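SAMPLE LOG
Freezer: B-3
Tube label: C17
Construct: single chain, 572 aa
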Amino acid sequence: MSIPAAAALRVLSVSLALAIASLLGGRALAHEGHDHGAEPPAPPVQAAPRAEAHSADFELVAVAAGPTIRLYLDRYATNEPVLGAGLEIETPDGSVAATAVGGGVYEIPAPWLARSRDHDLLATVTADGVTDVLALDLHLPDPLSVSAAPSPTPEAAWLAQLRRHLTHQGPVGAAAGGFLLGLAVIMLLRAGRALPAFAVLAVTLTVLFGGAAFAHDGHDHGAEAAAPVQGAALTLSAGPGLERARRLPDGAVFVPKSTQRLLTLRTGLTGLAEHRRTVELPGRVIADPNASGVVQSSVGGRLAPPPGGFPNLGARVRRGDVLGTVTPPVQAVDQSDMRQTQGDLDQQIAITGRKVARYERLAATGAVAQTALEDARAELAGLKDRRAALDTIRRAPEELVAPVDGVIAERAAIAGQMAAPGTMVFRIVDPDRLYVEALSFVGLDAGAAATARLPDGRSLALTYRGAGLADRNQAVPVQFAITGPVDSVRLGQFVTVLAPTGESATGLALPRSGVVRGEGGTMVYEHVSAERFEPRIVRVEPLDAERVLVAGGLAPGRRVVVQGAELLDQVR
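STRUCTURE (predicted):
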């Protein structure tokens, strides 16, 4: 049975549309699942090939930089640059002495780099009386591996973009697109336009297979560009200045030696030891009661400055210095009584004075006994003293005297201010003798040294001074004396006291600067190779103001970053 040409074309168009839909759906499913085989993680981006070696004392990294090789020499344990070392390299052209360029960096000429891909170098390091021999295996990649892929033509880029749009629509979108495409072809065929129908099919197949060909020739999957592979062409044109640090897919951080010097990364070897367990206590800075004092007014009166003025805050004073005066006020009634008393005293002084003068004349003739004259003189002296005391009460102010040596910590003195009895006018503190008072909920090791950590990260050495017998907020107040320098420490400043409890714990002691807080918890960075750092989740406990105790998550004998860990954690 023969089939008409129009029907045959319809069947062909529908079949092609269904095939295209299946092709689009399959491609979309394959691309959504990324079923291209398991790909290894991308290597770190490096500006030049490198080789590394280390011993128990030194760590050496060689970087091919143009026609020279740059050598970075560090201490293996601490990652400190080694300055002024003797460095000789056995090259294919013989032994060459490296030239120091500063900061633990050395260079040698390397004209032999272009002659072969693999180079075995032998470095002899001499520093601080220690000599080590380190073997370096430097490999240069194939120069063809760094050739740039040809840029696609505008037509190929348009086709690749259209193909990506079609193949990322998913199965449902692909089926719908195939249905609409078949419907369009059928309508064109019914209208007697076979040539446009076949043109539509041809363009569709070209987009699918031509775009795929363009894409797979250059592996151009969208904006993803293939990572450049190291090669000799790149080696001879790129220098260490182009190197950059980056975080690798596995979470490790690749940091070139040149960047490590900018970040000043330092490491330390972990060691298992027994340490005294400590607790963190809230505390604040207080004054030493034996080296501080307050200046108060014993009577109410008006404050007045001394001849030199009130001392300023922070001014150093000596014991016995007059810091101010208080003049007691005299009421009107009191003034009337005082005037009456003064008049009575003046009258008695005049009468007694004439009596003494008369007794003196009579005593010379023996008419009056000498004892009567002496009694009259004593009575006159007493009346004059009472009169003088009354004048003093009216006019002489009270002097405010410094009770101890120190500096003015607080001042509430204003000229003309009325001060009530017992008002604190000045507070004097010796800044070299301060205490820290903490509240402890557990028993402490009496007599043991403690430390305090300030909010800015500084630490203070403390000496135990005693603990109270009365609880305060269900805790025991404990006082420590600050020993050592106490620069920029203020009264009332809050600190964190780390005091020993008398118990012991076994673990790894690390500086607090080596511990960072991340999304996964508390971390430290292990220096696993010369330019690779891996994060380690650890469990830490307080040890003192400068160190923490790693109780789990890290084995002894590892190199851990102790300086610059916060900067290292910011690398992305």
